[in-house]
């Protein structure tokens, strides 16, 4: 079989069509992924790269093709290396932390049961602490399209694996934007479900009560397909909630920030222009648009890393940090140790919890039957710029993401123009946790109005898989 028959970009609909027509087999696709990964080794996408040793047993266990029974049959996916895959090391990008789980994370189990094939464990900002993709002893993950630029973190390798045609979709995690920023910077869809909608059992915690597992895909339909398979209550996960996603629908209004947005980096002017185009497109969707102050969202965002909530990271990882001096990436250790600051007392935590409770009420009032649209990020940086100023640059990448999980919101990051690989930009649509379907509805309408991925996003095969 000619290797040229394997699509350059892997998608669920494209692979299903190829399998059904006999153009290629799952083994052919896996072999192509192994070869492509080796050719892209300098991008530092994987910690455990694709190999037949890793993937072979899953190929051997693949049942006969039946897309009704196994909606992701033969579909290769990548797994962020803070999510467990039985038999493969989980490192969280820290060699001293590595362990080999006997059981896969709940979300991975569900994907395997649907016929999906894991191809590797992806690189990340160590312990999922960062939004840049450079904080790893396994190498800085290059942007899929502009190698000198950051790939976005912490789910850097996962996003780049999809953008570079190594996987049809990839699992990431998101505490403060890690499932959204890499989506924007690599021209992908990033689906961040509501807290508890997807189990986090088998996931190394960043801030356990705020962590989500997420998915990167080329199209909204594919992200919906994965959500339809992995969503569900898990009694073994202390954070799990029975949240059923309703059919996509349009909200009563779309909220846009009134003013004061910050754009940064060498592409600041281009990013601001792209945001203006995105906002204008939202105004053409036939949904009332209202401008609001985003003060409440900005206040909540500051509570995440400038308040006592960072102590949760220290509670989960502090003992390991203390026991392994010098074995943690330096900037990561500095950040983790902030959680052990003596100022973060129980009283301070309760003060912050009370402030957050008020923010949640205010946000709920604003977002009742509404969807908020913001830039996913206000710009980007080169990897050299991040190395020169790691804290400030990382903070800027989270300006419009950090509030989300604290306020118990669902979010979908979509590209402004998925075909723009020179200066990728995207927006994120936020909704209350019970109203994910409204963000989904606006995302569909926004993509359809853009004329770039409209048809592919709603491919019948992807829609069937999400049914």
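^ Assign residues to that structure.
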């Amino acid at each position: 079989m000619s290797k040229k028959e394997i699509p350059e970009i892997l998608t669920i609909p494209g692979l299903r069509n190829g399998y059904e027509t006999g153009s290629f087999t799952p083994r052919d696709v896996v072999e192509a992924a192994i070869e492509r990964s080796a050719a892209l080794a300098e991008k530092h996408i994987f910690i455990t790269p694709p190999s037949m040793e890793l993937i072979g047993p899953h190929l051997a266990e693949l049942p006969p093709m039946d897309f009704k029974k196994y909606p992701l049959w033969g579909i290769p996916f990548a797994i962020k290396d803070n999510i467990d895959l039985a038999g493969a090391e989980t490192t969280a990008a820290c060699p001293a932390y590595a362990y080999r789980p006997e059981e896969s994370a709940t979300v991975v189990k569900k994907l395997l049961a649907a016929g999906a094939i894991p191809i590797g464990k992806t690189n990340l900002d160590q312990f999922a602490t960062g939004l840049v993709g450079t904080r790893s002893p396994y190498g800085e993950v290059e942007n899929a399209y502009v190698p000198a630029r950051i790939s976005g973190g912490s789910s850097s390798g996962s996003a780049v694996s999809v953008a570079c045609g190594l996987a049809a979709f990839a699992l990431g995690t998101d505490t403060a934007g890690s499932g959204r920023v890499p989506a924007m910077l690599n021209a992908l869809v990033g689906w961040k479900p509501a807290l508890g909608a997807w189990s986090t059992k088998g996931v190394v915690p960043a801030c356990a009560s705020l962590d989500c597992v997420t998915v990167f895909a080329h199209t909204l339909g594919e992200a919906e397909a994965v959500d339809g398979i992995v969503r569900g209550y898990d009694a073994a996960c202390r954070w799990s909630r029975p949240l059923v996603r309703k059919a996509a629908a349009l909200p009563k209004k779309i909220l846009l920030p009134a003013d004061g947005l910050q754009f940064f980096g060498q592409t600041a002017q281009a990013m601001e222009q792209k945001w203006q185009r995105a906002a204008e497109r939202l105004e053409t969707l036939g949904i009332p648009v209202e401008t609001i102050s985003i003060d409440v969202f900005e206040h909540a965002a500051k509570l995440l890393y400038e308040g006592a909530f960072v102590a949760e990271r220290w509670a989960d990882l502090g003992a390991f940090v203390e026991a392994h001096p010098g074995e943690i990436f330096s900037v990561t250790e500095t950040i983790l140790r902030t959680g052990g600051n003596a100022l973060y007392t129980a009283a301070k935590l309760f003060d912050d919890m009370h402030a957050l409770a008020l923010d949640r009420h205010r946000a709920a009032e604003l977002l009742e039957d509404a969807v908020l649209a913001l830039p996913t990020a206000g710009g980007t940086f080169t990897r050299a710029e991040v190395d020169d100023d790691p804290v400030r640059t990382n903070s800027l990448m989270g300006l419009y993401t950090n509030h989300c999980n604290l306020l118990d919101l669902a979010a979908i990051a979509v590209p402004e123009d998925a075909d723009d690989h020179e200066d990728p930009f995207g927006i994120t649509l936020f909704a209350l946790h019970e109203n994910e379907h409204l963000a989904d509805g606006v995302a569909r309408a926004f993509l359809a109005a853009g004329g770039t991925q409209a048809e592919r996003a709603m491919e019948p095969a992807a829609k069937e898989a999400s049914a």
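The domain at 3-246+455-466 is CATH 3.90.1300.10 (Amidase signature (AS) enzymes).
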